[in-house]
Amino acid sequence: MPKVLIADKLSPQAIDVFKQRGVEADVKTGLTQEQLLEIIGEYDGLAVRSATKATPALIKAGVKLKVIGRAGIGVDNVDIPAATASGVVVMNTPFGNSVTTAEHAISLMMALARQIPEANASTHAGKWEKNKFMGVELAGKTLGLIGAGNIGSIVADRAQGLKMKVVAFDPYLSVERAQAIHVEKVELEELLKRADFITLHTPLTEGTKNILNSESFAKCKKGVRVINCARGGLINEADLKLALESGQVAGAALDVFEEEPAKNNPLFGMANVVCTPHLGASTNEAQENVAVQVAEQMADYLTNGAVTNALNIPSMSAEDAAKLKPYLLLADQLGSFAGQLTETGLKQVKVEFEGKAAKLNTKPLMAVALKGLLSPLVEGANMVNAPVIAKERGIEVSSVSHERTGDYQTLIRITVVTDKRERTVAGTLFAGHPRIVEVNGIALEAGLGARTLYVNNDDKPGFIGSLGTLLGKAGINIAYFHLGRNVAGNEAIALVEIDHDVPADTIADISKLPSVKQVKMLKF
Fold this sequence. Notes:
Rossmann fold, 17 helices, 34% helix, 22 strands, seven-stranded parallel sheet, globular, alpha/beta
């Protein structure tokens, strides 16, 4: 009988699930790393929340360890590369907290609108300051969602029940999906201009960090109210403080902060700020949901090999794994390439397999291609849940297998259709290693380094020199330079493998070159 260690506090229902599915479960919470190291070798599985750290040392000591299950979405406490190297599957439960987090955002919005925390404190103090607390109604107001994924769409539904009008900014929200959830899709500037309340429901990425700052607050309606139950770094807290003091922002309700635990924050003590200590997932129902889900997933894997919500492997048989390994890396890189370049709403994704690739089990390849595509865009996307995320967002996904061969014996091509354009990227295997061989119909041949600069430009003299000069001024060394074009003097693409990240100001300078259409720093 497989044996699992539950190292953090989980709902007792998780233990029942393990037992019902033929897995022995031991509950030993609050152990130190040293104590865990002493006993982890006895277990096939490790179930955690956020307290226990699955370090490389702990994973290495788990000589029987086959799976680590995280009851929740975040896996910062699990060393996934170390787990992968040891052949340990890492699973999470990405959707168990969605309703709870959405309800907390709605609760904070109501508390902010009616000044409930401050009025509560005043009344407890015996002041009865009835005339001091003049609130605003939610009915008829416009709610602006920044991020309209799983949680954002639930917030939209609840807000519509309160008779609010909902507009949403989400570059990856299709028009069809927006219609399905009854929100108006708008650009960020339009949202800032129209919203009476703004809620954030987006992952923290380079593109979303400080998405609300002094510049964006200045574009808002005077008296806008801001709610954040997503990630602390989405709001520049110093800029928010100034906007609150000036009255440009009437109030803010925050469940997350730039630094957590938040013991000392410039927003603390402000009368128009409501704060909670990251309670988005803190309900009995949510904790039961994630506990039961992680127990079901781990038990299924340990007893019959089924893989659900895995973060480091796709769903596939052991026999397929060896054959698919290089193709999985190719599909992941092609998807990531397309995803990192996607800047507007995804509508369609088509993956084509040609030659030898068409004769393989393409389901895991499809899953990993979607995971690569969505990972830069959606927090928590993995090989298993990527198809679900695509469906929820109204993205049409299709695959085609061609046994024919063209210039290459094996080829995978991804076509992405957005609100504004169609993009293709194709690759093959050379000596077992992935190589890009086509971008937007332009033939070129390149490997993808850890840092690759993508530049789409008009094919005009002097471009390469100008690009090299700007990179040289920034102290960026070029490892490899790959160039392709369709017709002389028309359109060209450069893939430049570099040794260091390109500073934002240098990216801006490159984008200002007369011939440049798009420039993007890609990471693999």
